[in-house]
Amino acid sequence: MSETTLVHLLRHGEVHNPQGILYGRRDGFHLSDLGVKMATRIAESIGERDIVHMRTSPLERAQETAAPLAAVRGLTPEIDPRVIESTNKFEGISFGEGAMTLVKRPHLWRHLYNPFKPSWGEPYDEMAARMLAAVHDARDAARGHEAVIVSHQLPIWTLRLHAERKSFVHDPRNRQCTLCSLTTLHFTGDALTRVSYSEPAGDLIPTKDKNAPFSAGGAPDEKRP
Predict the structure, then answer these.
(1) DSSP SS3 for 205
(2) Which end of the chain has fewer surrounding CB within 10 Å, N or C?
(3) Where residue 1 falls among pLDDT bands split at 50, 70, 90?
């Protein structure tokens, strides 16, 4: 019988970001107190599972999210640049006004000409390819067991769309990938057989952030905690 392997894609917890900056790949953005609590919840929720391998984005918020679970499992997460946040031409801008941020800045509109690519950031197909390569390596490292990859909302969601053979073009408000959620890829041998989703820290997410609006065109990712 072929072995079953699970690869859990864990989105990081809430980030301290009072100015509403689209922080992207910038250094210096750490988990908030609530984010630390979310990461601890993950360790409590899945710490007893058969997790034998972990890898994480190089960004601080991802490594901090991985830390409690890694401690419980006695693992040292591998830093994997392939699961880092996507690039974004709006990085560093405060989106405290939501969609009005772009409406009031016509000079940014030139980046919105092609939502299919998307024109404002890393191409979806390239993002899915790098994430999938990391997933396959994690699957191979955890054969017959479970692995956890700590990454970011858009890369995780893009990979899920690819796995489910759906269009990459989407409304960011409809992404099923909340803070510290788990998108789990089920493998039988090398074959991906199922994708499942759970929110172990869902009750900790402030109501105002569960359906928080993104800016026009769905360009900015992770502008909120």
Answers:
(1) coil
(2) N
(3) low
